[in-house]
Sequence to fold (391 residues):
Amino acid sequence: MARGAPSSADLQVVRELAARGVVVTARQLESWRRAGLLPRHRRRGLGRGRGSVVDAVDPLVVESAAALARHLRQGRDRRLAVLEWFAEAGTLPVEPEAVRVPEPPIGTVRQALVWVLERSVAQRLTELARSAAGTGEEGRDALYAAAGRIPGPYRPVAHPALVRAALETGKDLPAEAEGPDLRSVVHLVAAIGLGGQEVGADALAEAFTGFNLHGLTVEDWQQRLSAAERGKGPPVNWALFERYADAVGPIKRASDEELVRARTVLVGLRGFSCMYLLHGLCLPETPAQAALRQRIDDLGVFPLLDLVIVADPSPGQFALGLTVCLQPFYDNLYETLTQQLTVNTDIFSIPSDETGPAGFSEAWIRTLREPANAAPQDGGGADSGPGERPG
Fold:
């Protein structure tokens, strides 16, 4: 074989992928291999002084190249493709007989996670807060001004029970169903760098209320935080908040096994969160679903799931979710909800319906196609305009 010419094994990989409609070149394969993304073909020694030979194309090489080809495109950073590949490898195939996606090299995954997280909004805010420490009012004003220029405040979704009630009755969602946005979270970020007393109990109460934890109101949080400031209540552990706010450090410290476990937790919690959310889209009710939602409600964790779990995350959102799921709290939550699911696994089986998941799907589609069954709002007749009362 001429120097620099592609190997016969790589040419075979190119042909196998082409048969699937996946276009790669031998040059791409070698480029990915040099970047540490693609393994080399396994070789067999021919004996002393006789070199080695590739007996057969390694399926790991073929499937790894296929995964890279799915997620790479012209002009895209490879690290983003690696994160999408890592996320895909943690998801079970839709078809039972489908080939499982191989794992990318874990070292390249860690590098990609650090690269993405260092550029995330969360990390930028945390670094701003740390740089503002000890700079007084001027530093605080600069922090808030900089935070205000960062786009994309997160707004929690409306509670699925309220969405379902609105769909079933044909009424609009109540104004309070949308919940507060989390723009006020910048107060928590400021407290990490400046200290809670510099930010003030009122601002922090507004920030905590944005998370909607345990149904506490702004007044509830104000009372708790004011009591903590006066030494008449449990103190707020801002060091703990600072540790959780650091997105990059936990990824650097985590072992390879811990990164894979965090992905398992993230994927699992995503399934539980989606199940809860789909209740709002009139998913047919089953005892197993009701019990799972009740468990989530008893724990008061739906706002946290809503905050960190995204059904179809971008690589950046996936990286942040993975960091969060390194925390023992989310690992324990995943185990708790998984245990609940084992009590009754008939999530997609309507009682007394022997057709099982197929009948469940048909019932859901039928419900989504049907208009709301409730009478018009305010007793309006057919000739009443939207929002009008009959004369």
User: Anything to note?
Assistant: The chain is about 60% helix and 0% strand.
